Amino acid sequence: MAAIGVIGGTGQLGKAIARRLARAGHVVTIGSRSPESAVRAAADIAAAGGDSYAGAAAGKDVVIVTVPYAAQADALDQIRDHVGSAIVVDTTVPLVPPKVMRVQLPPAGSAALEARARLAQGTRLVSAFHDVAAHKLITEEAVDCDVLVFSDDVEARGVVIALAGDMGLRGLAGGALVNSVAAEALTSILIFMNKTYAADGAGIRFTGLTKAPPIP
């Protein structure tokens, strides 16, 4: 089992991810700008504990960043010098309210590429969990959605695919980190489809895949 820090774990997506990973037996620490809020959230979901962003990132095998796009830069700055050799998973989608149903990609091309530029050189960066409905993930129900996982580090990508499996999701390799732009853009489309078709958390499924890729 892995030691995992969830940065922004008091938010809807972060808490849902932390809960599923804790229930799978991983040692999960929730990180928040308010350590007191992190401790309360950890107690709610039976996680190992709560701490500041930096405290939750230090000494972990995996650090998952689940903050909104507007808070991404600050969160990454706070954990940059504490993640060490951990795999850093960035879930950020560059939504710009109020027009969240329109794709609005940042100048760097994607939130994942902005994260790579902000973190220390050599950080094992993975991008994933963009298109999972958090309000479903926090429940016990099965979530009918594939999780695309992107990274230039094939081994790290495999670790995150396995973590998705621990959460009851099907993780799929989506290729290099630069490909994260596709999943980040798709989130705005899913928000549009949810509204247009009165859906309760539309997701994506890939068909015709005959076998799972090997996990390093």
Task: Describe this protein's structure.
With 216 residues, this protein is of the alpha/beta class. It has a single domain, classed as NAD(P)-binding Rossmann-like Domain (Rossmann fold). It is 38% helix and 17% strand. It contains 8 helices and 8 strands; from the N terminus they run βαβαβαβαβαβαβαβα. It has helices spanning 12-23, 35-45, 53-57, 69-79, 111-118, 134-137, 154-166, 180-196; strands at residues 3-7, 27-31, 49-51, 62-65, 87-90, 124-127, 146-150, 170-175. The strands form 2 sheets. Strands 3-2-1-4-5-6 form a 6-stranded parallel beta sheet, sandwiched between helices. A two-stranded parallel sheet has the order 7-8. Strand 5, helix 5 (111-118) and strand 6 form a beta-alpha-beta unit. Helix 4 (69-79) packs parallel to helix 5. The model has no long low-confidence stretch (mean pLDDT 95).
Characterize the largest beta sheet: strand count, sense, and whether it forms a barrel. 6 strands, parallel
Beta strand %: 15-25%
**How many structurally independent domains?**
1
Give the oligomeric state. single chain
| Secondary-structure element series | EHEHEHEHEHEHEHEH
Whole-Å distance between the termini?
16 Å
Low-confidence stretches: none
Q: Order of strands across the biggest sheet? A: 3-2-1-4-5-6
Structural class: alpha/beta
CATH topology: Rossmann fold
Q: What CATH first level would be assigned?
A: Alpha Beta
Question: Over all CA atoms, what is the radius of gyration?
Answer: 16 Å
